[in-house]
Amino acid sequence: MAFMVMVNCPTTNEPVFTGLTVETVHGFEAGTYDHLSFSNCTSCGGDHTWSKPDAFLGS
Ligand SMILES: [Zn+2]
Prior knowledge:
Elements lengths: L2 E6 L6 E8 L2 H6 L5 E3 L9 E3 L4 E4 L1
Antiparallel strand pairs: 1-2, 1-5, 3-4
């Protein structure tokens, strides 16, 4: 089962999907995610930049 990498939208503070998925929790913990960005935030429609400390896993 894959996990969705989520961040809290800085505008609405709601959890939003970054577009990135990982196969395992370990895969996320072992990864390096620094200043990644995504567009069309599902909460506010904006563009956001995020780094690993901002992220958490959804399912
Ligand atoms: Zn947003």
